[in-house]
Amino acid sequence: MDDDGDGFTELQGDCNDCDPNINPGAVDIISVDGNGKPLPDNQQVDEDCDGTALLPSTDISCDNDSALALASTDPIHAARAMDICKLAQNGSWGIVSAKWIQADGTALPSTANAALGHGILPGFGPNVAPERGVRLLGLSSGTARRPGDPGYQSSFSKGYSSSYPAGVPFPSTSCPGVNTGTPFDSIGLELQLKVPTNAKSFTFKTKFYTSEFPGFICSTYNDIFLATMNPPPAGASPTGTSNIAFDATGEPLSVNNAFLDVCSPQTAGGKTFSCPAGTAQLQGTGFETHGGTTYVTTTAPVVSGSTITLRFMVWDSGDGILDSTVLLDDFRWSAEAGQLGTRSCTSGGIPGEACNECIAASILGDQGCCNTEWQACLGNTACQNLYTCMNLCTTTTCKTNCQNTYAAGKPQYDPLSACLFGTGGANVGSCGKVCP
Fold this sequence. Notes:
Distance between the termini: 58 Å
Shape: globular
Number of domains: 3
Number of strands: 13
C-alpha cells in the first residue's frame, strides 16, 4: 500500500511511506534553517531513499569528469557542465533527452563552425570561475572559447540563419520601437527533464557577455539570450515566448538588459551605465573593451513529477557579426515553491536595485547569491544596514554584535531596517523597495 500517496510503496523502495516528499522519485536537497543556512550533516534527510543524504560538506558537482572536454559534441555532457547530472531511468527523475538546436528548435547544422558555438569551460578569464563544480557551459553566437583555446575567434560569422522561435520578434521594453532581428548563428541546448517528486522549483545561473556594448545600444541587431520553458509558467516574458530569464522590465538578456553591470562607467546609446561590477570580469574573455553581466540567478516554479522542456538559446540578431556569449552553471532543484524571475546581487540596472535584490535573495536563503557575492552588495553603503547583518547571523552572539555595531551609528538612518524592525512586525513585502 502507498500510504502517503506519492506513487511508491515500501516494496517499491519508499523508505518513508508517511512523507510524500521522500521516495525513490525524489531528489536529495540540502535542508536549511530559518536563516537559509545549511543544517549540520547529521540533520540532513535522504529524500531519494538511496541510503545516503546530500550533505553540505560533500555537495559536489558531477562535472569533474575528464570526458567533459572543451569541444565535446554530446549534449548530455553540456547538461552535466551545468550540473544537471542524472538520467531519467525506470520512471525516475532526470534528463529524458538532450539535443543541440537552433533558435527555432530545428537541428543545429552538423558543421565545424556550428560546433564552435558551444564549449565546456573551466572558467572564463582569470576572474570568472564556475559557480559550482569545476566546469560550466558556454553558448555563443560566435565561438564559445577563451582567447588561446583551439577555435577561438574574436568575431566569427558561422554562416547560417534560422526562423524565429515562438513569440519572436518582440518589441524591446527598454528601447521603444526596436524589434529583434532574424536569428543568425544561433546555438541552443534543449533538455527534456522529468521533475523530481518533491521539487517545486529550480534555479540556474547565467552570465552574459556581448561585443555590442558600447557601440550598439537599442538596435534591431542586438543579440538575445532566451531560456524558455514548456509548459510555460505564468509570467513568462516577453509575452508569447515562454522565456523565464528577464529583468524587472521583462527584458531578456541582451545589451539592453538592466543587469549589464560588468563594464566601464559611461553613457552609450543615450543610456547611462554605472557599471558597479567594474571590468575585472572582462579580462581574458575576448570582451575586454565591451560589457557583460555578473552571474544572475533565475528561478522558475515546476509541478512535482511532471516533465518539462527547457531551451537555452543565444543568437546574433539581424546579422552574423559582433557576437555574444552566455555562461550557464549551477542548476539546482528545490523543494521550496519558487517565484518566476531573475535577480542579480550586484546590479539591476536601476538605482538601489542591487540592494533590494540582494536583501530579497537573502530572505529567501539564496546561498549562491548573497553569501558568495555579498561583498559586492556591502560595497554599496545603502546596503550596509542592520537587517542584512542580522539575516546573515546564525548565533545570538553574532546578532548582538550586529545590533551593537549599528547602534553605534552605522548607518545613521536605515529606512529598510526601520521598516523591518519597527512596530507591527513588518516584512519585506510590506516594506516595498525602500533602498535609496
